[in-house]
Structure formats: C-alpha cells, structure tokens
Amino acid sequence: MKPNFAQMSTKELRAYVLAHREDIEALEILFSRRTPDSQAIIYPSMFTEDGQPIEENHHIIEEAIRQRIDAGNSHEENES
Hints:
Number of helices: 3
Helix content: 55-70%
Largest sheet: none
Radius of gyration: 18 Å
Mean pLDDT: 90
Distance between the termini: 36 Å
Order of helices and strands: HHH
Strand content: under 5%
Low-confidence stretches: none
Structural class: mainly alpha
Shape: extended
C-alpha cells in the first residue's frame, strides 16, 4: 500500500522519491509542488558569452543569496 502523498510534507515526499525512484506517481506529485515559472526568480547571467565575469550581476546574486540566508535564519528563529 502506497503512502498518502497529499498528506506528506514536501521534505518527506522528496525523501520518499529519493528512496523510491521508480514511483512515478510520487515524482509527479513532487513536481507539481514546485514554484510555477510565473513566480520564479530569474537571475542574470554571471558571465558574458566569452567567459568574462559581470561584476554587477555578481553583486545582485550575492545580495539575493544573503537575503535567502537571512530569511531562512528568521524562519528558524520563529520556529524556536
């Protein structure tokens, strides 16, 4: 008997899919939970086509990473 995927958290479902890679139904449900493209954040390229770094874009991405870390830390503090 399969588990109830709808009741699993995304973290639990991800662990299940990793342990049961042949379970297509679980994989489809996990994929359906992802952020839609319309809500995804698209970051600029960090390099030009010839491989030169784009400093301004590095700063944009570093700031985005910093914000994600801060948001994660805030979330952890609120759960305590």
